[in-house]
Amino acid sequence: MKRILISGYALLSLMQLSAQNTLKDSSNYKSTKLKIDEINLVSSYYQQDGNNASVTGGIGTQKLTDISNTIDVKLFKYDKAGIKHNWDIEAGVDHYSSASSDMIDLQANTSASSSDNRFYPSVTYTRENEEKGKSLTFGLSSSFEYDYQSYGGIVGYSKQTKSKNGEFVARFQTFLDQVTLVLPTELRGPGAPSGSEARNTFAGSLGYSQVVNKNFQLLFLVDIVQQSGYLSLPFHRVYFSDGTVHQENLPSSRVKIPVSVRGSYFLGDNIIFRGYYRYYSDDWNLSAHTFDLEMPVKLSPFLSVSPFYRYYSQQGAKYFKGFEEHTDASEFYTSNYDLSTFNSHFLGAGIKFTPLKGVFGIKHLNTLEVRYGHYSRTTPLTSNIISLNLKYK
Q1: pLDDT digits (tens, 9 = 90+) for 275-308
Q2: Do you find a cis peptide bond into 380, omega within 30 degrees of 0?
Q3: Between the CA of residue 242 and those of 1, 260, 324, 329, 336, what are the distances in Å?
Q4: Global model pTM greater than 0.85
Q5: Which letter does DSSP use for residue 101 in this model?
Q6: What does the pLDDT look like over 329-375, one tens digit per residue?
Q7: Can you list the positions of beta strands (E) in 230-270?
Q8: Which helix (H) or strand (E) holds 84?
Q9: Is the Cβ–Cβ distance between 19 and 365 less than 8 Å?
């Protein structure tokens, strides 16, 4: 947690300096100069524990900790024609330690796999015609860690209805990844795979949102995701019923189709009910239902709380079996419990402060939010996450 506080306070001086040099605009003026819209700093600490590690064939510790720090800067300007240009620049760094990954080498007390860092920058540009209610979005992203590199792109389009109460959204994303083939030590040797393999993901989304009335809003979303290439993880062991050990082997293609609906109901000025449901299925015979409810409550003009709860139920993939349950009759096999049948619960709450004079007396640092969540699932696995969000606007 010390690292989170250091990151937060380091950004405060940057924000205070920027606030002192920001000129006030009239409410009707549209700046043709590039300006900061908002800056978000999110820091989080995550820890988990369980006893079904995929690295050791579905048994063994799943202890893991992760410290994440992300900064998101949103910029905008208007051109002479009144078109709004938005830039969203984000950079994140994670540091994690994993007891299960350390067991890639069963004889090692500690190894290079026991901890790692991930760096993930992205930039998104949106051209928005506010008068016509249309926007066009382009974005690039990447992610780097020791054994995994990913490059992504996004193209999006949105169009509001004439009444401005409805909006249609279409989006296409792609991720082009390279997986370094780090095998369990006992499976290395002459003829064993080495180098890296490609994994490609293409995702299309269609959505429609509607303001039903002044209190009720709805969003419908359908996705189709197609993956191809190396979809296994090379360091996941699978132990067969005869005691032999193998490397996880999954098909080289996968099609996912999630469908979801989200609704928000405003109960007066102080309470909002937010509900969400998603149905997921894929051609690995995995299916799932997600139910989510959040209820932000404004306790005062400057303080609100948001309790939330999510229930998730999954029917496992046809390629999953536990430790020493697979046989050599199986063409594809995994003992990754993320692909098993289970139910899970995630509950917690957030507290948001929006003081009139700004957080720590800095006028433009207008929001401080802390969220905590506890996760449990029936495999079993438990985790906790706490996050801190500072917003400058």
Answers
A1: 999 999 999 999 999 999 999 999 999 999 999 9
A2: yes
A3: 46, 43, 7, 12, 19
A4: yes
A5: G
A6: 999 999 999 999 999 999 999 999 999 888 988 888 999 999 999 99
A7: 237-239, 245-247, 253-267
A8: strand 84-98
A9: yes
Q: Is 61 exposed, middle or buried (0-12, 13-18, 19+ CB in 10 A)?
A: middle
User: And the tokens for 359?
Assistant: 């957080």
Q: What is the mean pLDDT of residues 218-227?
A: 98
Tell me the domain boundaries of the chain: 119-392
> Which of the following CATH numbers is that of domain 119-392: 3.30.420, 2.160.20, 1.10.287, 2.40.160?
2.40.160
Please give the Cα distance from 220 to 276 (Å, whole number): 10
Q: Please, how many CA atoms are within 13 Å of residue 85, restricted to the half-sphere of its CB?
A: 10
What is the rounded distance in angstroms from the CA atom of residue 222 to the CA atom of residue 259?
4
Q: Is the dihedral of CA 316, 320, 323, 326 positive or negative?
A: positive
Q: Give the confidence band of 148 by pLDDT, cuts at 50, 70, 90.
A: very high
